[in-house]
Write a structure and sequence with these properties.
Blueprint: H1 24-31, E1 37-40, E2 64-66, E3 71-73, H2 79-89, E4 92-96, H3 104-115, H4 121-128, E5 139-141, H5 157-174, E6 179-182, H6 190-199, E7 218-227, H7 232-237, H8 240-259, E8 272-280, H9 298-313, E9 318-323, E10 333-336, E11 352-355, H10 359-368, E12 372-373, H11 394-397, E13 403-410, E14 415-422, E15 429-431, E16 443-448, E17 467-472, E18 478-480, E19 484-491
Parallel strand pairs: 1-4, 4-5, 5-6, 6-7, 7-8, 8-9
Antiparallel strand pairs: 2-3, 10-11, 12-13, 13-14, 14-19, 15-18, 16-17, 16-19
Helix pairs in contact: 3-4, 3-5, 5-6, 6-8, 9-10
Length: about 500
């Protein structure tokens, strides 16, 4: 989609690219995020993607019409290139199977190509293409958004459930180590209920590929959600809708397991939620067919902070969350031409990268929000809702407090981190913090804010919104600035 791959992570011939064609400046930036896993090839794109087109000699790879975004896929970047890029970046791959124009045979071949160890056709094809050892790709999605009217081969929930269950049985027979992920909606629809109750079932006899006893075929259920509003407060509060989606989806998983009397050996066998598409995105502002290149504001950065707080608070239910997308397309990281960079900015003869406002919450959480979730008690003023929220039902489901908070403790490193997002654009809040800074030493303070909620890093000044480090002695009350995200870190 757009410039995510071509002109984003992969740009052969650019002076900033390495011998593989991978943009070195993009890799350097993404390494700062300690990314554990990246999803490929999509997205709506995967409904017409045939993996065999993208392996082998590049001069023999066919170009194909791409129907999701009405472009052309050259297939110069395929399975081996993506998995090599993951290796260079130091991350794990998550592949999405073609449930649109694809077949079960094709899916089995892809798994065999990536993971096969025997003297078999697709495992040998991988070896012929230069990779002797299996890639050991663990995570595989059973299609993408097959409920959507924009999808090639759109399905009903019943049709999808039947195909997903049959594919899952075959895929697990081929490779019992796979973690298979159902295609959900947003966790709030009848689709999610039907798919979960139809696939989280106890078979009459366990598959030969399962360990002793019963083990579910499905490891996770995916949900997607994007939030946005032209007005600051509806925009910044909107990610709280995802918290309701997570809670309801988790309840639907439990309902399916209980109703279908699925035996679970222990809690680790219970399927989790895979929130594998989330972000702030206004499709009218950044059209998908035109590359979906957003110009994010401080308001959007605060919304991303709320998104991340939600994931920390709900970490017990969410097994995976994937920001869509990594570069250029509704992304916190943009590749730009040299003429668009300020003199002395990051880049060289081939251009460079700009870190958008939304980069900085993601950077802070990725670096420091590790370990276990800590329960937090928050009492603050609330928004006296004077306009429609996004979604409209949100304000009727919960109070919308000005301060949105999450916390985590990393026992291994001995640090506790708390993030407070002050969504109020008019004033700061002075707060009495209990148990903060009770260990030895000062409290480390990181702050993300700017001159106003509409400022952006894409108008020639790349540091309008950045993360700034400071210190606090932990005594007295702490002031959270207006329209800001603050991370407090202290030793325990």
């Amino acid at each position: 989609m757009g410039r995510c791959v071509y002109g984003g992570i992969y740009d052969p011939g650019n002076p900033l690219s390495d011998e593989n064609g991978f943009r070195k400046d993009v890799l350097e930036a993404l390494r700062e995020l300690n990314i554990p896993l990246i999803r490929y090839p999509g997205g709506n794109f995967c409904a017409t993607y045939h993996w065999l087109d993208g392996v082998g000699p590049k001069e023999k790879r066919p170009s194909r019409p791409e129907l999701a975004w009405l472009g052309t896929e050259t297939n110069q970047f395929g399975t081996d290139e993506f998995l090599k890029w993951c290796e260079v970046l130091g991350t794990e791959a998550y592949l999405c199977l073609n449930f649109g124009t694809g077949t079960l045979d094709e899916a089995l071949g892809w798994v065999e190509y990536c993971n096969g160890t025997g003297d078999t056709y697709y495992a040998n094809l991988r070896r012929q293409n230069g990779h002797e050892k299996p890639y050991k790709v663990k995570y595989w999605a059973l299609g993408n958004e097959m409920w959507g009217p924009w999808q090639i081969n759109q399905m009903t929930a019943t049709e999808y459930s039947h195909q997903a269950f049959q594919w899952a049985k075959a895929l697990k027979l081929l490779d019992p180590t796979l973690k298979l992920i159902l295609c959900g909606s947003d966790g709030l629809q009848p689709w999610d209920y039907t798919v979960l109750t139809s696939t989280l079932t106890a078979p009459s006899a366990p598959l030969s590929s399962t360990p002793p006893g019963y083990h579910p075929l499905i490891s996770m259920h995916s949900i997607h959600m994007y939030t946005s509003s032209h007005a600051h407060l509806p925009n910044a509060f909107a990610p709280l809708a995802a918290e309701h989606a997570i809670t309801l989806t988790s309840a639907l998983i439990d309902h399916a397991l209980i109703t279908n009397r699925v035996p679970l050996h222990d809690a680790s066998w219970r399927p989790q939620i895979c929130f594998d598409e989330w972000n702030v995105w206004d499709p009218a502002r950044a059209e998908g067919s035109k590359g979906a290149e957003e110009k994010y504001t401080l308001s959007d950065a605060l919304a991303v902070g709320v998104w991340l707080n939600v994931f920390v608070r709900q970490a017990g239910k969410v097994g995976m969350a994937c920001l869509a997308q990594s570069v250029n397309v509704i992304s916190p990281l943009m590749t730009v031409e040299k003429t668009k960079l300020e003199e002395g900015g990051e880049g060289g003869g081939g251009g460079g990268v700009v870190k958008q406002t939304t980069w900085w919450p993601l950077w802070l959480f990725s670096r420091y929000m590790r370990g276990e979730t800590v329960g937090v008690g928050v009492k603050s003023g609330v928004w006296d809702v004077d306009r429609a929220t996004e979604p409209a039902w949100l304000s009727g489901m919960r109070e919308l407090g000005w301060l949105d908070v999450s916390a985590a403790v990393d026992r291994e490193s001995g640090w506790c981190s708390a993030v407070v997002v002050n969504l109020c654009a008019e004033r700061g809040w002075s707060v009495d913090l209990k148990s903060v800074g009770s260990g030895e030493g000062e409290v480390v303070v990181w702050t993300v804010t700017g001159r106003g909620i509409e400022v952006t890093n894409m108008d020639g000044v790349e540091d309008e919104v950045v993360a700034k480090e400071g210190r606090w002695d932990g005594k007295g009350r702490f002031e959270f600035p207006k329209h800001s995200l603050t991370m407090l870190r202290w030793r325990i």
